[in-house]
Task: structure prediction
Amino acid sequence: MPRGGENTHFGFRQVPLEDKQSLVDDVFHSVAGRYDLMNDLMSGGLHRAWKDVLVNTVNPPKSGRPFAMLDLAGGTGDVAFRMVQAGGAATQITVADINPEMLAVGRARAIENGLDDAVVFTEANAEALPFPDRAFDAVTIAFGIRNVPRIPAALTEAYRVLKLGGRFLCLEFSTADLPGFAALYELYSFNVIPALGRAVAGDPDSYR
Ligand SMILES: C[S@@+](CC[C@H](N)C(=O)[O-])C[C@H]1O[C@@H](n2cnc3c(N)ncnc32)[C@H](O)[C@@H]1O
Result:
């Protein structure tokens, strides 16, 4: 396929657009088994609170009303499990992720916790979803949008699969702009996180 010459970001590097997905896939292939533990260690457990904000904002119905949600780039199912626990008996979550290793960890977690009826794991690229139009009441993506090479394509797909009146919610990191805190955070992310990646996942590069 001819190269279009367009670049995009991969961490702090600029890479050809068509190379990004395989670089992202290598990262999550490498860290899948330790992904959940690393999230706890890197954020001091804070990712749980951030995900709870997302779940509370979606606010799945507690009644028996059917509620179908798609969690894009849902990885090991962390958001999906929280959503099912917050919702009623007819809450049904589809986790879509491009990485089979992350999905395999998620499926095992679902079986372990007896949630495999309520949470379905599907291998899919957020840029070209294998779901019909207007299938979901809500679409979420947590810490995933920055990994998708063609974000407008993923947003178009999210819109297509949402029912009329459905909601799209995106949870993502921002930049630290508080003076002092930004420098402290930079120190942490450039030194502590790769060191944790080396010690726990045996892979400092994926956490750089
Ligand atoms: C940082 S993880 C987030 C996982 C999960 N949402 C969470 O918050 O724990 C990013 C996920 O995005 C997935 N991903 C990357 N590119 C994707 C794409 N084009 N389509 C679907 N998933 C993708 C990766 O495989 C990985 O599981």
About this structure: The longest strand covers residues 162-171. The beta strands are 7-10, 13-16, 67-72, 91-97, 119-123, 136-142, 162-171. The pocket of S-adenosylmethionine is lined by residues 21, 24, 28, 73-75, 78-79, 97-99, 102, 125-127, 142-144, 147-148 (CB under 6 Å).
